[in-house]
Structures are given as C-alpha cells and as structure tokens.
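Methods — Computational structure assignment.
A single polypeptide chain was analysed. Its primary sequence is given first, followed by the predicted tertiary structure written as structure tokens.
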Amino acid sequence: MKEVQQMNGDGGLHGSREQTLVQLVNEYQGMLLRMCYAWLRDEEQARDAVQETFLKAYRCWDSFRDEGSRKHWLIKIALNTCRSMQRSAWFRWVDRRITPEDLPEPVWQAQEEDAVLTSSIMNLPPKLKGVILLYYWQGMTVVEIADSLEVAQSTVSHRLKQGRGRLRGMLERRDCHGGTPGEADHPSSI
C-alpha cells in the first residue's frame, strides 16, 4: 500500500514500528484483499477496507498482545471493518452479488468443480460464508475464528456444520439437475 509507505515522509511512523508495518502490508495485503472482496463483494470497497485495516492496526499498535499471531489480529480488524462497512445505509442499497467471473484471476487454472464450489460458497449467507472462508481458505482453527468473530466456539462449530450442509445440498442439487448453482440455490430462496 503506497499510502502506508508514504506516511514515512512526514515523520508519521518511527523506526522498527514502520518497518514492521511495511512488512505486514507486504505480507498480508493480498490475502486481506481477497478476504475483504469475498466478504464485501466489491473491489473498491475491499481496497478501502484493507487500507482502513492497516491504519487501524497502526493506531492500535500498542494494544497488540503477542498471544496470537499478527495475521489473525489483522484478520480480526479486517472482519470488523467489513462488518462496519456493511452496516452503513449506503452499502445496503447496492446489489453486491458476484459471480466467479468477478473474482480476481487465480494463480492456478481452476477446474470446473472449483468454480462450482466457489460460486456455491459465494451464495451462502454472510455468517456461514465467513466461517467457511476463514476455516478452509485461511486455515484458521475454530478457536481463532471464534476470537476473530467475537462469538462462542460452539457458534463457529454450528455455523461450520450449517455451511457444510448448505454447500452439500447445493452441490447435490447441481449434480441431480445439472448446470451450475443458480437463483434456486441463492440463500434467500433456500
């Protein structure tokens, strides 16, 4: 993020704290952007959320406890930022549905099954989609997800079970009826 790196010019950052922040930006910016994009379904909003995440991390640097990893700390800040953005009145009036074609190009060539699974995950309700993405995509444990989302571990386990069940149903319907998950699989119609 050029904005964070440019803060050095006016003396806004200091020594090792600046170096650590720049290292965090370089290491986690792409991962956070993909996660925020999946959560918010809008590239510009996702970029804003990632920038805000790093600014909040800088402002709250002294509150970071080494009890967990910096990655999970940043994910927690990013999730809270995305939730705040979703609560805004403007955000609720915009159609945020995305298709696999809208997602950034993957590093590898996706198989048809991958595209179907990705589309099905994007059609899950936000609470289920969130835990599925954090558990399978980010490799977080149930305990880490519970801490990041500020919910009970049993809630995370329940959402994982529900999410897996919904995904299984979507994929089975697709196999039975052919084609890709469509409007019939959209959470609002389930």
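Note: The mean pLDDT is 75.
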